[in-house]
Amino acid sequence: MKKIISALLCFMLFSILHGQGSQMISPATRFPADLKHEGFFNFKGIQISNYYEMEAAKSLNINNDGKEDFLVLLVPKSIIPPLDDEFDFDCNKYYKRVIVEVVSCGEDYKIGSRYNSLVSNRAGLGSGFDGIDVVGDDIIICHSKPNGNIYWELKMWYHYVKRKIILL
Q1: CB distance 127 to 141 below 8 Å
Q2: d(CA 134, CA 164)
Q3: 122 with 129: CB under 8 angstroms?
Q4: Residue pLDDT, tens place only, 46-66
Q5: Which ranges in the chain belong to alpha helices (H)?
Q6: Which ranges of the chain have pLDDT less than 50?
Q7: In angstroms, rounded to a whole number, what is the distance separating the alpha carbons of residues 140 and 154?
Q8: Nearest 5°: phi and psi at 144?
Q9: What is the pTM of this model?
Q10: 69 Cβ contact partners less than 8 Å away, ≥ 6 residues apart
């Protein structure tokens, strides 16, 4: 038993030191119908579940090391129109758009913070989602909705403070 525990601890330490184990983004869902998107795709060595579609990858320098890092916007395929007949409209609970930091770490990349409340869950359903952009040190997330002769646009400006994204 001690050998098994020792081997497991060594494997965990090796995995942590070499950036393995936490280099995968899996679906955040409870619906079996969403898990039909099997497999993974690769972005900078990070394995991302086919449950997501990568809508944007914006480069910036998150950790101030002079190397290119990325903010990646992942959207569950279940909420990309046209919607599946099995779609459950309780999207405030389960279908989360997520912004993930992909941070340079030497020659490799690792997953940094994940933000699942910066982009509206209803964007694209009740309103439009125009994208994410990086201007200087600021991150801009834009939503809009044309409604007949009326058009509204909401731009939210974020900035990094102590390695966390905050609303300006």
Answers
A1: no
A2: 15
A3: no
A4: 999 888 889 889 998 888 888
A5: 2-17
A6: 2-21, 125
A7: 10
A8: -155, 165
A9: 0.71
A10: 59, 60, 61, 62, 63, 101, 102, 103, 104, 109, 112
